[in-house]
Design brief:
Largest interface: A-B, 50 and 50 residues
Oligomer: homodimer
CATH class of the largest domain in chain A: Mainly Alpha
DNA sequence: GTCTATAATTTGATAGAC
DNA sequence: GTCTATCAAATTATAGAC
């Protein structure tokens, strides 16, 4: 069951990082949350906290990147899918009492100026998310530059709305932000259809 | 010159918090950056790290809230002012090599689930910024609900774009986000003028 | 692979001389 | 008010028994 322990450690890191950030989360706290012996962390991650954090970042990139098809497949159009994604995020935030938003945003801000390998890991995840969204907007008929700009704004808006929503314990921020993004995508689609 | 020392400590905290976050910044590092003796921190902030952090948060709220008039006074209209604000932020980010974005975003994410007094302090600052922007959009003739939604989206978009820009060391994200916000404000103004 | 004990540092905070 | 020395606790990481 070694694999299960390793997975539990990554999952525990993901949960604690999004609630307390990178520096605020100790290796012992991760081991305790994963119900794993402290030594197991260094067995599975000989590179220590940096290696573990890198794995948490990449795992979050895969998990949250996989949400894009969930919202965009079968939606009437990409504008509606965009709004649904923000509404879904708002509901999720309320359900967890604003504890679990993005697993890597706090880490990204902490390591951007202090840890180059981890900064690159977060940059790759954001680029992956932006790429997935760009493909959807392009598939809806938007020019590549327009699609990319909307995708960048989608991720930026959601990440920023998470910051305000967690601070205020009010998810209406996320819905307001989603409404603006909905209108932006709708306007781009209308313009492309002219 | 006691006041000067106190100000230097707050300024040092503001710089270190935005680069390393709350938990990642030690009191000794703040004292060193402020060129103040370690004991002076506890002389001026008997409440310790929490009291100092609260002051840093509130100071950032005043300083950055004062930027709103800078961009909106004298601008042709609020849509252009919105875009100018994002372009200015992008330029500032490039000039500091992506080190200094928002002083409280990282802190806000770290304390939201762990420190209720500091969470409230960050929430009040975000509300102050949103309020200042809402007043500008209302002053431009937009309905209160529309103005508020645009103001919330302004702050969310900028905060989120900061996260992506710092991670990727690319300020184009901020300009792309500003273009979307420009178009959103422009569309709202056009609709209100019908 | 699991688990404990511990090393070496660093943390926030305090005491007290000057 | 300034500054140093120091405390107790927490940190990352390692060694080594089982």
């Amino acid at each position: 069951m070694g694999a299960a322990t390793r997975e539990r450690i990554i999952e525990a890191g993901s949960i604690l990082f999004r609630r307390q950030g990178y520096a605020g989360t100790g290796m012992k706290a991760i081991a305790a949350a994963a119900q794993a012996p402290f030594g197991s962390i260094y067995h599975f991650f000989p590179g220590g906290k940096d290696e573990l954090t890198g794995e948490v970042i990449r795992a979050a990139g895969r998990v949250y990147g996989a949400l894009v098809p969930r919202f965009f497949d079968g939606a009437p159009d990409t504008a509606v899918a965009t709004r649904c994604a923000f509404r879904g995020a708002a509901e999720t935030l309320r359900d967890c009492n604003y504890a679990d938003a993005c697993p890597i945003a706090a880490v990204a801000l902490e390591v951007a100026s202090t840890n180059e390998p981890l900064r690159l890991a977060t940059a790759e995840v954001f680029a992956h998310w932006v790429g997935g969204l760009t493909a959807r907007y392009e598939g809806a008929g938007l020019a590549p530059a327009v699609a990319h700009r909307l995708a960048v704004s989608f991720v930026s808006m959601l990440e920023g709305a998470f910051v305000l929503a967690r601070a205020s314990k009010n998810a209406q921020v996320v819905e307001d932000a989603g409404e603006i993004m909905f209108e932006a995508v709708r306007a781009a689609l209308d313009k492309a259809a002219e």
